[in-house]
Amino acid sequence: MSVAQIFDQVSFGSVKVIALSRNGGLSNAPFSSLNLADYVGDESAAVRANLALVTELAGASGIAVMSATHGNKVNVVSSLGLAPSGDGLVTREGNLALLALSADCVGFALTDSVSGVIAVGHAGWRGVLANVMQSVVDTFVLSGGKLAQTKAVIGPAICGSCYEVPSDRVSQFSEHPAAIFDETHLDLRAGVRSVLAKQIDSIYEFPGCTQESENLFSYRKASGQPTGRGGLLVIRSSS
Length: 239
What we know:
Layout: E1 6-12, E2 15-20, H1 44-58, E3 62-67, E4 74-76, E5 81-85, E6 88-91, E7 96-102, E8 106-112, E9 117-123, H2 125-129, H3 132-142, E10 151-154, H4 167-170, E11 180-182, E12 185-186, H5 188-197, E13 202-205, E14 230-236
Parallel strand pairs: 3-5, 3-7, 4-6, 10-13
Antiparallel strand pairs: 1-2, 2-14, 6-9, 7-14, 8-9, 8-10, 11-12
């Protein structure tokens, strides 16, 4: 029997944040095995089964799955299933997990276990430029989250040493200098962290580079071939 595997996790009171491994699912190669995206060419039945495994793993009543567009739109959700297009999800619902899909991009979460507000965001290079981080923070606060008691989590992503890009792309990050690793590399996690750290004192960062780890999906390592998507999941238990 397949069991979804955890790459790393952390808990804050009633809230759990889980970085999912690529292992423990039902998808066949090249999506093996815990692919959670239905847009990469995998069999729909396998994706549904994998999401069910993750729901069980999290102890959730259901999962709201992000439909990322590499922008800065944030949706407040209260029901399971595929969320409207956007790169951030916020909820006050207990036992409803929020899932950001990625395979090199940065998943990040905000948690306020006192007020019960949780959020998840997705930031690739376009998202960092669009400051999706601030958009998620703003919607989180409007939904009742208190930054003074908030814990943020940054998930695994491609590291600065591995994420080589054209120099003209690096030059676009003049307003997000923390994301510049060198003249031809970006550190997206540092870009995300720099915005969150100005407003949130407690930030936990999962280790792990998606390109270097065999336990994580990486679009870049796939070199143009199909690959699955892993995820960062956040849930608040209401029990």
